[in-house]
Specification:
Distance between the termini: 56 Å
Shape: elongated
Oligomer: single chain
Number of strands: 4
Structural class: mainly alpha
Number of helices: 10
Strand order of the largest sheet: 1-2
Order of helices and strands: HHHHHEEHEEHHHH
Mean pLDDT: 80
């Protein structure tokens, strides 16, 4: 015991006395990190409408589907309604009841808009991972991956296997107006009500 006390005294004399923080650390979920969320946007842009780019609204819709797997089957049923391959498409996704209640998701122009989207897009833009394009009248804003973004997509895509699996069901192109129309119809009012209650 004397040796332990002696050691403690020597440590104290040298100013090396340990400080222990017993407070619980704040654990940040990956979904809350802008880097993780922005990386998933790279996956979306790397899989769909690669040449023409995507609008902010459709990026928001697809991101919502990837985060809320419960709505994926409903979306596929509507998107491929009347087509023979719809059952085959449904068999290719994992069934899940996952619904993510997030107070950062709001209704904007009827689509599920994450209030952090502009921050995520800026995060990607300043790192030369995305670029913006418009029509000749400077309207119809679209976002696409830059050459650097395409390189990064091929590096990170294997980190998101379930997301890739879902996006592959649509080939390389997703219809803009059709997607937004379906998303606004399949998200029940109960989701928005529950989300609002969670926020309060």
């Amino acid at each position: 015991m004397n040796l332990i006390n002696l050691l403690a005294e020597k440590i104290k004399e040298k100013g090396l006395e340990p400080s222990i923080n017993l407070n619980r650390p704040n654990y940040v979920q990956p979904e809350d990190r802008i880097q993780f969320r922005s990386t998933r946007l790279i996956v979306i842009l790397g899989m769909l409408n690669k040449e023409s780019g995507l609008s902010k609204e459709i990026i928001a819709c697809v991101d919502f589907l990837l985060r809320n797997e419960h709505f994926q089957s409903k979306f596929i049923l509507e998107y491929y309604s009347g087509k023979k391959l719809v059952l085959k498409k449904l068999e290719q996704i994992e069934k899940s009841n996952q619904v993510e209640i997030d107070f950062n998701i709001v209704q904007y122009k009827s689509v599920p808009w994450d209030i952090r989207f502009n921050d995520m897009l800026m995060y990607l833009y300043v790192r030369n991972l995305i670029e913006y394009k418009t029509d000749k009248n400077n309207n119809n804003l679209r976002i696409k991956l830059s050459q650097n973004g395409v390189k990064n997509f091929h590096i990170i895509k294997d980190i998101f296997p379930s997301e890739i699996n879902f996006l592959e069901l649509f080939g390389t192109k997703m219809e803009h107006d059709k997607t937004i129309k379906i998303i606004t119809e399949i998200i029940p009012n109960s989701y928005w009500k529950q989300n609002a209650e969670f926020n309060n």
